[in-house]
Design brief:
single chain; about 70 residues; mainly alpha
Length: about 70
């Protein structure tokens, strides 16, 4: 039996938020989808930190910076 990682609820919340952001992006609901992605990737960066998964932290923190730049320069 596989042991479940802690903070699964937070991870699922981040996943659901990314899916919501994807739907908003598909319908080009700008800039709302960028804010949703910021929250989602912030959640996943936090989960990565809590899990001590450096790759998750770097990926999601990097994506968060990309979204912030998109909001700033648009």
């Amino acid at each position: 039996m596989t042991q479940q990682k802690p903070y699964q609820l937070l991870a699922w919340l981040g996943t659901a938020t990314i899916l919501i952001g994807s739907v908003l992006a598909a319908f080009n609901i700008y800039p709302v989808y960028l804010y949703v992605f910021l929250v989602a990737n912030g959640i996943w960066a936090t989960v990565g930190w809590l899990w001590r998964e450096q790759s998750l932290v770097i990926l999601n923190a990097g994506i968060t910076v990309v979204y912030l730049l998109g909001l700033y320069f648009k």
